[in-house]
Amino acid sequence: MAKNQHYVPRFYLRHFLNDKEKLWAFQKDSKKIFLTNEFSIANENFFYDLPEFDAVLEMAQPV
């Protein structure tokens, strides 16, 4: 399982990079605009992990 999972794919974010490989981002709650890289934006830890399904899948795998 990957810990850091992007909900906007990095290959999509790369199209917005400037010549220093940074992109502009806007944080809605604080209304801040900042430069960041494709690895640090649009991701969350374990975003696509579903523990309920992981338990079922582990039980279903052959020994």
Brief characterization of the structure:
This protein has 63 residues and is of the alpha+beta class. It has two helices and four strands. The protein has helices spanning 10-13, 51-60, and strands spanning 4-6, 23-27, 32-36, 43-45.
Topology (elements, then pairings):
Blueprint: E1 4-6, H1 10-13, E2 23-27, E3 32-36, E4 43-45, H2 51-60
Antiparallel strand pairs: 1-4, 2-3
Explain this structure to me?
- This protein has 63 residues and is an alpha+beta fold.
- It has one domain (4-60).
- It is built from 2 helices and 4 strands.
- The chain has a two-stranded antiparallel sheet with strand order 1-4.
- The two termini are 20 Å apart.
- The model has no long low-confidence stretch (mean pLDDT 82).
Number of helices: 2
Distance between the termini: 20 Å
Shape: elongated
Query: How many β-strand stretches?
Result: 4
Residues in helices, as a percent range: 10-25%
Described by strand count, sense and barrel closure, the largest sheet is: 2 strands, antiparallel
Mean pLDDT: 82
Q: Helix-strand pattern, N to C?
A: EHEEEH
Which stretches are low in confidence, meaning pLDDT under 50 for 5 or more residues running?
Answer: none
- Quickly give the structural class: alpha+beta
Number of domains in the coordinates?
A: 1
Strand neighbour order, sheet with most strands: 1-4
